[in-house]
Amino acid sequence: MFKSLWTKYLLLLFSVSMISLSASLFLREMIISDFEEYLEGEAEDKIYKLLASIEGSYERYSGWNKDALISNTIWALLLGYEIKIYDSNRNELMNTAIAVNTMPPLMKRRIEAISGYQQENINSSRTNSNFIGYPLFLGGKDIGTLEINPMIIQQTQGKETIFMMRSNRFLILSVLILGGLSLILSFIFSRKLTKPIKNLTEAAKQISEGNIKSRVSVSGKDEISVLGNTFNIMAENLERHESLRRKLTANIAHELRTPLTVMQGEIEGMLDGLIKTDTERLQSLLEETSRLKRLIEAIEELTKAEASGLELKKEYVEIKTFLNNIKGRFEKIFSDKGVSLGLDCKDNLKVYADPEKLSQIIINLLTNALKATNKGGQVIIKADIEGDLGKITISDTGIGIKKDELPYIFERFYKASEGGIGIGLTIAKELIEAHGGKIIVNSEIGKGTSFEIYLPNS
Fold first, then answer.
1. Is residue 232 a part of any domain in this protein?
2. What CATH number is associated with residue 63?
3. pLDDT tens per residue, range 111-120
4. Residue 92, SS3?
5. Residues 124, 10 share a domain
6. How many CB atoms lie within 10 A of CB 90?
7. How far apart are the first and last CA of the chain?
């Protein structure tokens, strides 16, 4: 029924407001109930005190005394009660009207002002209301009856009644006002909440339809803003990977086209009799075939590495001997280009790794270093221990890598320079991480680059 987030949020806020108002109403009713019980208790206390005063006067004067009866009747009026006092034979001894009429005019007016007494109300109440009787005792003996008019009790509670009526009106008005405000505020806040979500939904829909340049505008620092920023970062990554994918297609096409073109030309020349089918030509074809094979194997190895499908055959590798062997294989290549290759390694340094994969990593980095270093430059291999990790650093004095390219050099198919298809460093990183290690790069244009490899030594 309520499918949209906006409707659900609106109902939630309105429900919370109504629950709060209901709780306030319930609390108010409890307070009023307690207040009414308190008033009833106060009324009972007044009546008991009045009874005690009348009985005390009877005892003090050893019978009924007119002045005492008038005094108690006036006191009862000040307490808010019209009363009648009877003796044990049901003879009326005193009532409120008689007591008031015996008073001097000035005192009578004061009593009327204080008590709210009106003669016509009293006369009317005699005929229209019933009195409640309370027996009077002295030492267990019946000495008479006190009758109290309930209408006068109700009149004395007029202020409380007015207060309750006003409270009820105020509560109803509050419910209407707060209910309306809660609806308005719920509408505003729910719109504010759902608008960025709708924008995110629309942007995501556009990306799903192929518009990877779609973004959302973000303002604020709340959870939805964080979601929006995350979405934009994801979209930027998608756009970058799409660009890399297109470059990959072009690079692979180029890498495949070159050897295939060479092979096709030589084979056609042989078939046409323009090129001799000798050992040299066959060797050239074999080299081009090997180049294609290496390209396919590199892509296959990257796929395995990213899918965690590598099978590592780990063992303790003595680094100094291991690196010396690799250095020996590269010395002639470096020497032919006029680049020196150095090694600085401590004795008895071991790492726990797959020798073949580790060799592949080092060779890849050395090959890149040689390409980036001009004649007269230097490449140094250094090995050391850092904490519980073995550290191998390969640094060169080559051309360096641009600062804005450093975050992407380990991305698939990203090339900081022309040549290759851009997966060598990606494979190296995947292999290192498969060993439980990490690789860090530092570079500065015109000064060179260094790669730091960290591998477990146990």
1. yes
2. 3.30.450
3. 666 555 555 4
4. strand
5. yes
6. 8
7. 61
